[in-house]
Structure formats: C-alpha cells, structure tokens
Amino acid sequence: MENRIDAIYARQSVDRKDSISIESQIEFCKYELRGGNHKDYQDKGYSGKNTDRPKFQELLADIRQGLIRRVVVYKLDRISRSILDFATMMELFQEYNVEFVSSTEKFDTSTPMGRAMLNICIVFAQLERETIQKRVTDAYYSRCQRGFHMSGAAPFGFKLEPTTIQGIRTKMMIPDPATANIARLMFEMYAEPSMSFGDIARYFAENNILIYGKELKRGFISQLLRNPIYAQADLELYEFFKGQGAVVVNDAADFAGTNGCYLYQGRDVQERKNKDLRGQILVLAPSEGIVPADTWLRCRKKLLANITFQGGRKARNTWLAGKIKCGRCGTLRTAEFEQFVYGEMVKKLSEFQTLTAKATTVNPKLTALNVELAQVEDEIEKLLNTLTGANAVLLSYANGKIEELDANRQRLIKEIAALNAETISPQKIEFLSAHLHNWNNIDFDDRRQVADIILSQVQATSDRVSFEWKI
Predict the structure, then answer these.
(1) What CATH code is assigned to 158-306?
(2) Which end of the chain is less congested by CB atoms within 10 angstroms, N or C?
(3) Which residues contact 368 (CB under 8 A, 6 or more apart)?
(4) Span 233-246, pLDDT tens digits
(5) What pTM was estimated for this model as a whole?
C-alpha cells in the first residue's frame, strides 16, 4: 500500500510587486494535486542559484527517508536554476522513484515527453542566468575602470562622501581626521627594515591605540599595507604594478603623486591571496592618497620578500636578476660578476660623495621625462605583443619601429640619469653609502633594493660590459 505523500515546494527570493508570492505558488500547486495528502516546504528570501536552502534540504531528507511520492512546484526555476544542481536532484528523484511536476509549465517526469521538455527548459533557465551574470559583470568592470567606488565600507583611515562622476552619483573616499594618522603610522613603522607586524602590534597595545575599538591584529596590518588606496600614486608606483603584471587603466602621465588607487580582481583571475598581481586591474581613484608612494612601495616590496612560497618570477640566486642582458658572452660566474658590478656601483656613487645637503624639490622636467619614458616602454611592449604570428612584412615594420623607440628610450634614460645626478638627495646618498660599505653583512633583499635604485640595466658581451645607470 502506498504510504508516501505529495510535496509542494515554493520559493521566493525577493518580495516585490512583480514576483508571485509563496501563498499563490502553493495555491497553483494544490490545484494540480486536486486534493490528497501533501506537505508544504517554503523557502522565503533564498536565491535559486544553489540548493543551500533550509526547507529544500528538509525536502531532500524526507525523500531519502522514503516519505515523498511526488514533488510539485509552481515553476521550474522555483526549485533550481543550475543544470548541475538539477541533474543531481533528478538522479536522487529517480533513485527513490519520485515524480516531478511543474504546474504552470505542464511538465511531468512520469512521461517521456515531460522529461525531454524539462531538460530543454532547464537549459534555457541556465542560459538566462548566465546572461544576467554577464550583464552584471560587464557593468561592474565598466564602473571599475571609471574609478567608481564599488560598494562596502571605507578602508581604515578613510570615510565615504557622496560625489558625482561623469554625471553618475557615487561615493568617494576622503581621509578621516580621527584615523588617517594612525593608518599612516602603520606604513611609516613597517617601512623601517627591522620592523615586523609583531613590533607594530606591540607598540599599538603599549600605547593603547585601538582599531575599531579593538587591539590591532597582525592580519589587519598585512591587508592594510597591501591596499594601494593609501598611496599617493606616482610613476614609480605605476611601474611597479606594470612590472607585476597588473592591467593599469590610466596613462602614465596621470600618476602625479596625488591620488590613491583602486585594485580590482580581473575577469579571468583566480584568487591568489595577494601573492600575484597578474591580470588584476589598477585604476586611479578620485580620492587623494595619504602615504607617499615611496613609503607604500617600501612596505609592499618588503611584504613580497616576506612571502615564503613565491611565484617562479622572483629569482633568489642573484640580486642582479632581471638587470643583465647578455649578448654573445661566455659563461658568467655569478659571484665574480656580482663583485665586478658591486665595484662599479661603488665607483658610481663616489661621484656624489661631495654633494652638500640641500632641500629636495620636484623637478618638472624630470617628471616629464619619466612620463615619456613610461609611455615609450609601454609602446614597445604593445608592439612586441603583436608580433606573434606576424608575417615578414609586419615583422620588418615592427622591428624598425622598435629600433626607433629603443633609440628614444636610450636617450631618455641618459637624460633622466643626468637630471637624477643633479637632484639626488643627501639622504639617498647616505642610505646607499651605508649599504654599499656594509655590503657583506646586508641581506639579499637589501642588495636588490640598492641595485634597483642605482642600476637600470647591465649589458654583457664577451668583450665588454656596459651600464645604464639610474643616477
């Protein structure tokens, strides 16, 4: 004797005028049953994108216990909008001999035609959902690239203020007088080579400095220091993100050392927990940063050096990695070559030892040259990216254009080095001198930092070595 009952399942994600209520859904289903014993399962406020709904899970549990004969819904998408979820559910129904009926669409899995039509319908339900998702994603990235605040609370040190961008109302961040100095202090402390997260947390605890009313945690420091919204983004920061593989929306000329930046996850980027910036989107924010770019970059590079497992792109065998361009040279012995380059850096810095202390000022010409260099290098990169699969004519044209751009690049590097030599600060000379004089005792990352400041490139062949200096 049949002891099983019929089940009516109803779901409503949002209560609005153009959506059918759960009560109305149940009435439609009751009419389909035309009497008989049944049990209602109702999920209000739950989406159909997955099956993580309490009453739906209760329904599945009752099916597994052999209590349900037939499941009736008002419409197919009330129970699932995912092909995978629906296929899994149908396998369960078949295993326990449970029929499925959609009352308004007249689908009944007890018949072959009903099963075929039901599969077609679920395909279109999934297509509709994916189309909606694509529209939402396209709108999101369109707003990202225009510097819109996308949602959520302001980071620590900022507060949100209504504004209008391109005729659209949104919000922008402004420094919070009560907390901006505290956020800035974290950067200033961590920028010191010997300072750790633990040191900062202990300092805050000893001085009773609270974050949102609680003691500072190390994880909070780590996340805050990675956020470029704090940086007063300049060309050096632009180059850093380009070098890390991020997609930089704004032109190099826009990085004037004033505004912060938004960093968004790229369309096809898997979550990498801040270890890798490839494919992520960097766009200048309408708000001003609160931390000098050089301080932010010192912190970011220190964070990268502290990651235990890093991508293969960061070499650990020589502090000259990425700077050596070899022609037809013989085998380079790393230790000997490093010692040779070290000696050349000492000689180069000795040219600046007689400089007297003077206030450093922003040189407009130097800024303009750096912008031009960034644009030339970007154009070279774009040309190189077009050469894959190119024919002989295009290759010939591209090679000629690249040679022309590279000649311009070399000219700019020399002019920038000359201007840097005129404006290099006594503080930077002191920093470099201290590290070079203590070379055998400083660690790998400090050597890399010194090389990054002094050297642009080393070109080595079998009979000569030439240097491109940054100072």
Answers:
(1) 3.90.1750
(2) N
(3) none
(4) 998 899 888 888 88
(5) 0.47
